[in-house]
Amino acid sequence: MTTNNVHPAPPFDTELAAVLSIVNEQLPPTLTPDMIVPLRTGMATSLDELLEGRPITHREETFAGPDGDLLISIFHRTDHANAGLGIVHLHPGGMIIGDRFTGMETMLAWVEELDAVAVSVEYRLAPEHPDPAPIEDCYASLVWAADNADRLGIDSTKLIVAGGSAGGGLAAGTALLARDRQGPALAAQMLIYPMLDDRNETVSSHQIDGTGVWDRGSNDTGWDALLGDRRKTDDVSIYAAPARATDLSNLPPAFIDVGTSEVFRDEDVAYASAIWAAGGHCELHVWPGGFHGYDSMAPFAALSVATQDARLSWLRRTLGL
Fold first, then answer.
1. pLDDT at site 6
2. CATH code, domain carrying 39
3. Could you give the CA distance from residue 1 to residue 17 in angstroms, rounded to a whole number?
4. CA-CA distance, 120 to 200, in Å (whole number)?
5. Distance between CA atoms of residues 68 and 90, nearest Å
């Protein structure tokens, strides 16, 4: 078994390290099961703060999900007129925390910059709703967005799934489901430091232990909540843990980024490699010294700005925007 003593953790970016020391005062590296409920309350995102100063309109709708109604938030520019990019956003939170507004800062920047329409779903969270509840809710939101594309002002040929962390894993799983169920055609998948592998056995998963944001112990907390006793067995679905997929052919173009100093580094690099091995399109960025979620926690840091620029550039090139 690999240990921290064998593989010391890579250093954090100097600018980000200063931010991390402040972040860890409120958000410790390791999230334990007893912290789930308090964090859900303490980390709630303010919609008013999200939209402040932005020429963006928000409204809510509900639709029939796999097990009851699902709540959707829809964001578009106040002057949105022509059908264009549609983003199905799946929020971060380790499968256990967060809501449909979590991680929306990046999506709203694309709404504003690219005149996109973003749809964000309030998918069910573990452990109250273990797998397959979250991924089925996310896939249902994609189907709903595709079915309502004209009404929403979305060009159905420019519909993508996007998400960070757990949302990135759910986006990858949703793309696999869309392929295997012959569901909506996706133009792209944006996987931002995605949570892909329940086994937690990579070098990077051992390096980031008791440090950074969302460390090895946090990863155990999230995956245990989602999968319970099935975790690390052959009963884990590729849609819940896309790193387990052996066939990554016939998927939409992918963008994957990850920091060198986070748990998900190695599984994300491996997923990109597997897409290439299957003859697919994937752009991979591994950002030196980045901790998990650095771009949202330190948005004005040089590494964060470069990261956001790379994502936007890829969207423009891949979708002809």
1. 74
2. 3.40.50.1820
3. 28
4. 28
5. 18
Instruction: Write out the two tokens for 104.
Output: 């929306």
Q: Which domain holds residue 42?
A: 14-319
Q: How many structural domains comprise the chain?
A: 1
Q: How many whole angstroms separate alpha carbon 193 and alpha carbon 303?
A: 14
Q: Over the stretch 240-298, which tens digit does the pLDDT of each residue have?
A: 999 999 999 999 999 999 999 999 999 999 999 999 999 999 999 999 999 999 999 99
The answer to whether residue 255 is domain-embedded is yes
Phi-psi region of 90 (alpha: psi -120 to 50; beta: other; left: phi over 0): beta
**3, part of any domain:** no
Looking at residue 66, the DSSP 8-state letter turns out to be B
In a domain, 9, yes or no: no
Bridge partner residues of 72 (DSSP): 61, 121
- Give per-residue burial for 149-169: e unless 16+ CB within 10 Å, then b: beebbbbbebbbbbbbbbbbb
Task: Answer positive or negative: Cα dihedral of 284, 289, 291, 296.
Answer: negative
Query: Three-state SS across 79-129?
Result: CCCCCEEEEEEECCCCCCCCCCCCCHHHHHHHHHHHCCEEEEECCCCCCCC
Distance CA 116, CA 226 (A): 31
CB under 8 Å, gap of 24 or more: what pairs does 45-51 form?
45/99, 45/101, 45/102, 45/104, 46/101, 47/101, 50/101, 50/104, 50/105, 50/108, 51/108
Q: 8 lies in a domain?
A: no
